[in-house]
Input
Amino acid sequence: MAQPTSFTSQGVDDQERLLDEASAVVKEQAYYMKRAIDNDQLREAMKHASNLICELRTSLLSPKNYYELYMQVFQEMQHLSNFFGDKSRHNRKMVELYETVQHAGNILPRMYLLATVGASYIKSQEAPAKEILKDMNELTKGVQHPLRGLFLRYYLSQMVKDKLPDTGTEYEGEGGNIDDAFEFIFTNLCESNRLWVRMQNQGPIKDKSKREKERHDLRVLVGANLVRLSQLDGMTIEYYADNALPKILEHVTSVKDTMSQQYIFESMIQVFPDDFHIRTLEPILAAYTKANPSVDMKPIMVTLMNRLASYLTNTEGSGTVTNVDIFSLFRTHLQQILERALEPAPSTGVDQQLDISAPLEVQAAFMQFTLSLYPDKLHYVDIILGSTVDVLKKYFARFTGGNKLSGPAAEQVMELLACPFKTLSLSVLEMEQFPTLLGFLNFQTRKKVSMEIIKSVIEGENALSTVEAVNHLFGTISPLLKDEEDTPTEEGRNTEAFTHEQHQVCRLIHKIRNDDTDVEFQILQTMRSFFWTR
Output
């Protein structure tokens, strides 16, 4: 098959035609291969297998179509794998077969045949599994074309997934142990990831965004190795913490690729159990602080916090960790992550406008996470509010000339303020940082927050029983009580909305509760003072 420089110059029709042509060759060679297998003709079977594998040498197909072609090849190669495993038919020692396939002319079919024979070789137990696995891992490095190498690694992983010397398997013992099983998958993960990262540089610069999308579509070929690791019976929480995780994190942070780090960090949260994350929370969070600045930490942190909150609040997980200060760990590392998000872009060296809503969404998730684990820790809430205030002060000092939020960022601050109010009620208003954070919102947003607070008081069980409580409440809902610096003009006001707001404020009087009539009078006087103007 003729080989042009790249598949990027091919149109949709060309891609379909090329895939059809390659598929036709695979089907034809598979027919002759299966006929040779039926006649127990080993050499003929391997020749036709090599021919059909050669179709995977193409550079013409897009990754999507290459995957379709690969699946056809994979399915046909299972016939050859079954033949290799039946020694009564080919009458060869597995070591002879293993050496024979290494004489194939081209390296790609040679490596596919090697993986196919190697799987049968391990199954025969004629040699230690660990030695065969190590040899195949090393020889497979000979294919360095990113796309071809990535699919070859995937094939190797598929062929031996149930033939690793994992704890409790028939291959353990002389065949190796969990260390050998881990080392094989981990090496395959590292090599697959490097090949995947290199795909972004294959072709002209103008097609880079298209290549990145296609590379994103192939991420499962890398992630499959993480799934394999999580499925090992020998992958105990101790083994994960002491051996597996440090190596995985070292590799991820050493590969300075944004998509790679983003995907692997997210995948690790999904594939490994929640109690593993609790046990290794500190090194995981420390690794997040070393990620590329362009990595979007929001989905990573939010997913991790949601999973841990769900796990720890159920009966099974509640008593799992008594010696882990989860709040402090998250607080310390989140602060580093958020501060880094406020740094100037390294590519330009100059300040660029930042979308502050993403860091604020992380803080809102942290607030929900903290309240679900520590519903009675009032000072934890004030700490989060305070750190959010610090972030916003740095943001406004560095990126804008104003000091008010709007849009999605304002919505996230509203969520930060409303979330603790739902569980802690009026006690939230006593926090030092609450009014400070409220001050970053524009007038209309502050009114929304004020209305939510009034609604919570009216519909809740809490009464206004002290002068201090009224001072805190009415000081917070001041946008509904008096004009402020950013209050709209009369022309900009909605009369109907204004009437409704004032009606809700008046209903607060009915929440006054105190057995001492003198105190009730003082409360009324305090309320009146907030409306009094000189």
Observations:
- The CA atoms of residues 35 and 45 lie 8 Å apart.
